Amino acid sequence: MSTIRGQGPALGNRSFLAIPSEENRTLVSEKMKRREWFRPVAPAFRAADASMWLKDPITSPYMSFAGVATASFTDTCPGVVHADGTARHQTVDHDTHPGIATLLDCLADLGVPPVVINTSLNTGGRPIALDSSDAFATALDAGAHSVLTSAGLTRLA
Asked: What is the CATH number of the domain that holds 135?
C-alpha cells in the first residue's frame, strides 16, 4: 500500500507500507523501488511494543536509531531485520503518528504482528512523493495495489 498524508516527514506519511515478510521486502525494495538487493528497509511498530522486538529498546520516532532484534522479531518479521541482526526502526504512537498507529492497532486486532515495512514513497532516482498526484503516479509506476490518502483508500489493481 502507498500512503500520503500531508507534507511532513515521509515517515508513514508518504510511504510504501507492507507486512514485513522477506517476500514483501523483495517486492517493495527491489521490484517496486528498484533498489539493490542488499539495501534494508525499516520496520515501524508501536512504541509500547518495542521491548518485544528489540533487545535494548529505544524510542525512535524518526528512524534515527538501529536496535538489535530479538529472536522473535527475526523469526516473525524477517523482511525488516538487517543482515547484522539490527533494525533501523520507527516507533509510533497515537500522538506522534496517529495514522500508522491506528493501522498497527488494526493488525493487532486481526492477530497479525503489529509491524509494517515503512519505506519512502519513491522509486529509483525519483524524489519522495510530495502530494496526492505524486503519490498516485509513484504508486502506478511502482505497481502498488492501493493508495491511502486523507480522502480514503483507492485500489489500483
From this structure: 3.90.870.20
Whether the Cβ atoms of residue 4 and residue 147 lie closer than 8 Å to each other: yes
Q: Residue 47 burial (CB < 10 Å; 0-12/13-18/19+)? A: buried
Contacts of 126 (CB under 8 A, 6+ apart): 138, 141
Instruction: Give the residue numbers spanning the domain of 104.
Output: 2-155
Give the dihedral of Cα atoms 61, 63, 107, 55; nearest 10 deg.
Answer: -100
Share of the chain above pLDDT 90, in %: 81
Mean pLDDT in residue range 131-143: 94
At position 8, the amino acid (one-letter code) is: G
The arithmetic mean of pLDDT across residues 123-147, rounded, is 93
Cα distance from N-terminal residue to C-terminal residue, the chain:
11
Q: Please state, in angstroms and rounded to a whole number, the distance separating the CA atoms of residues 86 and 80.
A: 9
Give the chain's domain count.
Answer: 1
Q: Say whether pTM exceeds 0.70.
A: yes
Closest CA to 77 of 40, 110, 102: 40
